[in-house]
Structure to design on (232 residues):
């Protein structure tokens, strides 16, 4: 996914009220929208380089949006709204080898009245549900982790994927790793042990877990390569 305009580099001052970040741009301090409701654990040190998009919509109260944070020499894509766009681009351009040549790709499809998955794909009459989780946590240089906080919603999605598998759908959960140059992925069991238990149950039930790393720059973010899941 290409950014419509080049991003603007600044320095993080602080994040607050979940949706706001103060950023120093040259000698000016601006408030930008933070499109990530998660904990953003490990990303929010004061002084970190950040990259902002500029909004041209006059109806928007904030002129800037936070897109990328640089920490520990790695660029990290933090805009959770970009995750499904990146995966849709990946599905459409056959960047995800397990889901190549999908004949139909439908975003935001209801499985039941309580659960909507990110994508439904069809290929040779086989329907597949796909759920996407955006990954921004790394505590070791080469290993990405999820989740970065307790996620009851994440566990709910795992249980729904198990139900979909029982009903004959092929099911996938894609951990979209928006972190430069990591080589492995793991479930952060110490952060949410309940999610880890549900992950193990889902794996046994036949859900396909994939971790794909992104290539990140101030001009574009797109799927780069598959990385190893090391919880097995």
């Amino acid at each position: 996914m290409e950014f419509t305009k080049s991003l603007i580099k600044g320095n993080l001052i602080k994040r607050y009220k979940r949706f706001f970040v103060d950023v120093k741009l040259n000698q000016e301090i601006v408030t930008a929208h933070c499109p990530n409701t998660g904990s953003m654990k490990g990303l929010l040190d004061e002084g970190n380089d950040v990259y902002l998009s500029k909004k041209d919509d006059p109806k928007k109260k904030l002129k800037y949006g936070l897109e990328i944070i640089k920490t520990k020499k790695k660029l990290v894509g933090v805009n959770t709204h970009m995750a499904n766009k990146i995966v849709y681009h990946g599905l459409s351009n056959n960047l995800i080898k397990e889901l190549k040549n999908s004949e139909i790709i439908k975003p935001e499809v209801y499985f039941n009245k309580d659960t909507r998955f990110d994508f439904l794909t069809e290929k040779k009459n086989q329907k597949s549900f796909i759920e996407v989780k955006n990954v921004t946590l790394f505590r070791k240089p080469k290993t990405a982790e999820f989740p970065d906080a307790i996620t009851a919603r994440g566990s709910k999605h795992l249980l729904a994927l198990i139900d979909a598998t029982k009903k004959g759908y092929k099911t996938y959960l894609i951990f979209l790793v928006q972190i430069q140059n990591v080589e492995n992925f793991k479930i952060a069991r110490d952060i949410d042990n309940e999610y880890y238990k549900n992950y193990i149950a889902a794996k046994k039930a036949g859900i396909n877990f994939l971790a794909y790393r992104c290539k990140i720059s101030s001009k574009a973010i797109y799927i780069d390569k598959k990385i190893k899941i090391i919880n097995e």
In short: Residues 80-229 form a domain with the Trna Endonuclease; Chain: A, domain 1 fold (CATH 3.40.1350.60). The helical segments are 80-92, 152-166, 193-205. The longest strand covers residues 126-135. The mean pLDDT is 95.
